[in-house]
Amino acid sequence: MQRKTRSQRCSVMTMAVSRRQFLKLAGAALSPASLAACGGVDKSRADGVPWAAFGPDSTAEEVTKGLDLTGKLAVVTGCTSGIGFETMRVLAKRGAYVVGTSRSLERAEAAGLRVRGLTTPVELELSDLDSVVRCAEAIRSLNTPIDMLICNAGYRGGGNSRELVNGVERHFAVNHLGHFVFVNRLLERLFLAQQGRIVMVSSRAAYRDVGENGIDLDDLGMKRAYSDALAYAQSKLANALFSLRLSELLRGTRITSNALHPGLINTEIDRNLNAIMRFGFGLLTAVRGKTTEQGAATSCYVATHPQLGATSGQFFEDCNAVTIAESHLHNQVLAEELMRVSEELTAPYLVEQERPDWSEFENGVRGHLWSCPAARIRQPVFTGRSTDSVATTSKRSHSTTVSDIASNSSVQPGLRHTPA
After folding, report:
1. Which of 97, 226, 232, 349 is catalytic?
2. Which CATH superfamily is domain 43-348 in?
């Protein structure tokens, strides 16, 4: 029998419990002794990384204060709620043009309409690699370099019911393989940026709740041992190791890749838990958690701060890079093996990286969008969709400047103007 770690004993159980049992468990979990025990991780400051004057209470707006992201393109997966929405909102507020993805195009569009700035909604179902390819191609059709690729979307099951996607356990398929193909398909656009950044939103579960060997690459269907907590932890470790391996493969380029733990936040990640466990998770986040604004801070900091231009292959918490002793977060051997297995599983959907052709970008969005003075005004909200692979374009136009952008770009946004 595998010995459970302290972190595994502290993790929220997803088994069915009675109301009385739950209240007892919740009381024990929230006691001072239990909270102290859950913090027993050997964590230290990472060497050679600039230390930020921010911490767990910092917000996304605070860590990006004073930054002008005008002219930059950011892609954020899972943009409709939680830290994904807050990340999109703050980046757009600072002037970036943000492409936000969601499983539901309608929800992504509605989220964009709540943001002051320039956004485009695109549909992305990470469990369906054909959808991943369509989404990536829609973004590529913008014909503009990508400055920030923030892989934020995530899945957390409930009920301890093992589900498979093409023979692979669902958490691993959605959280890792979907983003694996997504990054591969968009990597060329990051090469064209002045300084491209890949940000993988992982979790502390990647070092608290995994088994002794990290990820069991010989049993990705998790037939031998399954729980929602373990499956989620393995997928989040895969996010961190993918970032680590990318940092090695991209060494010597202008692209960086880093992973992070956003903090304990009461978002829709718990939507698949039963009502009792959602209530318990809400109690836990109320005692030890962050607000959504605080939870998005590390993502925004790693994606934008100038002092991290040469920082790659790190794991961040509370806006600072950390080293976790006795974890697999820095396991280069496992990262390399994970890359090999992931390539085998997704081979039909991957593209070989070639030298980008700058001629493709002569009529891209970036030149036309940011040359228009009205596009730099942050009062209106504009959202658009790719006509080729996302949805039908609206024919309405609310300003001459917007029409000019649409007519000169390979993507013709269905633009809508909503007063701020």
Report:
1. 226
2. NAD(P)-binding Rossmann-like Domain (3.40.50.720)
